[in-house]
Amino acid sequence: MADQKIFAGPRIRRIRTQRELTQTAMAADLGISPSYLNLIERNQRPLTVQLLLKLASVYKVDVNELQGGGEQVLPQLKEMFADPLLAGELPGDQELIEISEGAPNVSAALVKLYRAYRESQERLSDLSDMLAREGRETRIASARLPADEVRDTLEKRPNHFARLEEEAESFTKLLSPGDDLMGALTGWLRADHGISVKVLPVEAMPDWKRRYDRHSNRLFISERLSPFDQKREVAMEAALIRMQVAITAEIEDLKLSSNEARRIARFEMARYAAHALMMPYERFLQVAVREKYDLDVLKSRFGVSFEQAANRLTMLQRRGAAGVPFFMAEIDQAGNRFRRAGARGYPQARFGGSCPKLPVHEAFNTPGHILVEAVQMPDGVEFLIIARTLEGPQGAFHERPRRTAILLGCEIAHRNDIVYGAVLRGVPDAPGRVQTLPVGPACRVCERAGCLARAEPPITRPLGLDDMTTGFSVFDFV
User: Fold this and answer.
1) Dihedral (C-alpha) 227, 231, 233, 234: value to the nearest 10 degrees?
2) Are 417 and 293 in contact, with CB atoms under 8 Å apart?
3) Would you identify the family this protein belongs to, as annotated (predicted)?
4) Among 12-16, 100-104, 436-440, the range of highest mean pLDDT
5) Which contacts qualify for 108-111: CB closer than 8 Å, 24 or more apart?
6) C-alpha distances in angstroms, 171 versus 6, 241, 278?
7) Residues with Cβ < 8 Å from 403, sequence gap 6 or more?
């Protein structure tokens, strides 16, 4: 302790102000001059061992508290400044250390304020979901990140872009790919634009799936990707070159508010165009109807992944030539949702998709297997749900990449058109009806009583706090 200089000015000042002492009074208690105490409080002089012992004796404070105080609040400040709204505001941890050490009370207050902000955001989101479920549009103004704006805009509209479909068909005729779309795309890029495609190892592209080098005119693709995803990345690059006008027109129709949002939407449009190239509309629809939307058949027939085939099913809504109106969502093992789309817009108001009983969560226990379930919402609406895990980028031995699962659904009325409808069990003594799993849109807006899977209390009902009775749910309500 003798070799370590301890600067604890803000903590000394806090001890003094809590006891409503002046600097003169405290200096007299400690046996030092008021000017010396002033220097200590401004961190211009360190605490000596004798002064530490005097503080502990006179004011009954813990010496360890005087040697550190920012350690507890520092991780919370780091969490706060990791929020997307604040990310990038601080260049490093040094300023956070200075804040936590120099103004511990202010730091604690900021953390408390941030937690209240996060809680209010979650409550507003829950309230918005509840109002949307009741068919009422919410116009609560809030700051949204560009990615959130794009996601919300795409989820609310049909996942079908006519201009991109037409351009994709024209491009396919030009390429005449036969059974080798990858070869046709790489040949077109080389012949028409002088761009060569090369798959690079992990050490050369540790952080990117695709990167175009304008100086060498080369398109690099990561070896981490499956052959299907490599083909999609090449198709995206080709679409961005060939279909630029159509992509720009579709983005303009979305009426996004910022250039950053338009840039993100451009990526989504390129992804859509790539799927249209890999699975041409008319042929894909014909095969899908004939094979009753069997995803395993579709992915083998078109040389695509399960996720790509499922995604394409939500796009089959051309006027006069539409398929079953599917919707889809993709989540990770922690339950985070990061992609949702629907043939008529994602049915947030009617379906939600956040119920822990949905088979998409169970899919992680049986990787690669398709789970089929008929589910019923609290208002009686029924859906046919298909769930399966997806194969993501390949990681090295020491890495743990995020694994995801996809949920594909449609209204139960279409079950006879889909191969998966045949596995649904019937209701005894009720011909033509199937057994359904009762689910809800999300725990916070679901009022199903006695649900064993409930994770949160509903915001619409008070909790039933009865000392004499307890239910199976930890969030019983009245």
Assistant:
1) 130
2) yes
3) Belongs to the short-chain fatty acyl-CoA assimilation regulator (ScfR) family.
4) 436-440
5) 108/73, 110/77, 110/80, 111/73, 111/76, 111/77, 111/80
6) 71, 11, 11
7) 332, 333, 364, 367, 389, 390, 392
For the entire predicted model, the pTM comes to 0.70
pLDDT of residue 219: 94
Helices (H), 103-212: 104-133, 146-156, 162-175, 181-193
291-441 folds as Beta-Lactamase (3.30.450)
| 82, burial (CB in 10 Å: exposed 0-12, middle 13-18, buried 19+) | exposed
CA angle (435 as vertex; 430, 441 as ends), nearest 5: 135
Q: Delimit the CATH 1.10.10.2910 region(s) of the chain.
A: 145-278
Beta bridge partners of 404: 332
Gap between the Cα atoms of 448 and 255, Å rounded: 38
- AA identity, residue 448: R
Spatial separation of the C-alpha atoms in residues 450 and 453, rounded to whole Å = 9
Where along the chain do the CATH 3.30.450 domains lie? 291-441
Tokens (6 digits) for 372 = 């089929």
Structure tokens at 72: 């507890």
DSSP annotation of 463 reads B
Ranges in the chain annotated CATH 1.10.260.40: 9-107
Residue range 152-179: mean pLDDT, rounded:
94
Helices (H) and strands (E) in the chain, counts: 18, 13
CATH number attached to the domain at 9-107: 1.10.260.40
Distance separating alpha carbons of residues 473 and 478, to the nearest angstrom = 12
What digits encode the pLDDT tens for the residues 377-436? 988 899 999 999 998 777 777 777 778 999 999 999 999 999 999 888 766 666 777 888
- CATH 3.90.180.10 corresponds to the domain 145-278: no
Exposure class string for 291-329: b at 16+ Cβ within 10 A, else e: eebbbebbbebbbbbbbbbbbbbbbbbeeeeebbbbbbb
158, 272 contact by CB (below 8 A):
no
In this structure, how many other beta carbons lie within 10 angstroms of the beta carbon of residue 466? Answer: 10
CA atoms within 13 A on the CB side of 381: 15
